[in-house]
Amino acid sequence: MGPKLFQCNTFSIYALTKQAEDFAGALSERDWEKFDAAMTYFTRCLLTGAPVLRRAEKVRGSTQKLYELKITAPGSKGPQQRMLCAVEGRCILCVRGIDKRQRRLAVADIEAADKALARRRGGGHESSRKKERAGRS
Known about the structure:
This protein is an alpha+beta fold. It has four helices and six strands. The protein has helices at 18-25, 29-48, 107-121, 128-136, and strands spanning 4-8, 11-15, 56-58, 67-70, 80-88, 91-100. A hairpin with a 2-residue loop joins β5 (80-88) and β6 (91-100). The relative contact order is 0.17.
């Protein structure tokens, strides 16, 4: 696991990859405050069981159950800063930082984050459902 970025509620926030660490380190003070606010909201939802809306959402197409944490408020102009992360117990693993310029996340960013997380978890890149189907054939 990479360096600990900070503590939020009862969660420890870590940078899993060098890219995520560099992205977080390059945030301005104002953007860091937005990151902290988004993470506080996200962890509060995880603790209370409230639905994760607005500032975080599950990433469609992820094989590793990634979340897209919205550092820049949705709908704001310019590139929007996002952090792809995963939850493991009381740890949040920041996997990939993104300056999002399109409506959707780039498939390459999702795949890179999934691959890094799969390596950490000691598994392959394929989802268990795909492996099951392959075993039946």
